[in-house]
Amino acid sequence: MSESTTTQLCNACQGTWPRADHFIADLGLSQAYVHEDQFFKGWTVVVFRRHATELFQLAPTERIQLMEEVTLVAKTLAHAFEARKINYELLGNQLPHIHWHLIPRLATDPAPLEPVWRVPHEPVHLATEDLQAHIERIKAELAKLR
């Protein structure tokens, strides 16, 4: 499969994932979005802007900048949600496009020793006004750290 075909089939490249109304900020090489499932409050995804599936496909300068952007969002979430720990997940099995899941683990976490993927739960979808408040909370903290 050619690169252009792969890009055409990629939900991240086509703009169908993540949802546009979950957008937080443009970070440079990546963009941050609130994850649709907020069972783990503050769960955010950082999506690389161009199509790539592996970190080794990036130029060294891109990898460095991307990690700085991921780190900035992680620090933002840690402050905004008073996280005890941030989980970093870069998988790509279901969506082969570089994107990081950043998950604040809070004092109220029901299973602090388990990865989020192994915690049975009903997805929590925020109402529009709650989603906007969530986004504004993250943006405000991000502005303090930039």
Structure description:
The protein has 146 residues and is an alpha+beta fold. 35% of the residues lie in helices and 18% in strands. It has a single domain, classed as HIT-like (HIT family, subunit A), CATH 3.30.428.10. Helix 3 packs across helix 4.
Q: What is the helix tally?
A: 4
Instruction: Name the poorly predicted regions.
Output: none
**Beta strand %:** 15-25%
The protein's oligomeric status is single chain
Named CATH topology: HIT family, subunit A
| CATH class type | Alpha Beta
CATH superfamily: HIT-like
Instruction: Identify the strand order in the major beta sheet.
Output: 1-2-3-5-4
Number of strands: 5
Give the tally of structural domains.
Answer: 1
Largest β-sheet summary: 5 strands, antiparallel
Termini, distance in Å? 40 Å
CATH architecture: 2-Layer Sandwich
- Structural class by secondary-structure content: alpha+beta
Q: Mean pLDDT across all residues, rounded?
A: 95
Can you give the helix content as a percent range? 25-40%
Q: Overall 3D geometry?
A: globular
Q: What is the radius of gyration? A: 15 Å
Order of helices and strands: HHEEEHEEH
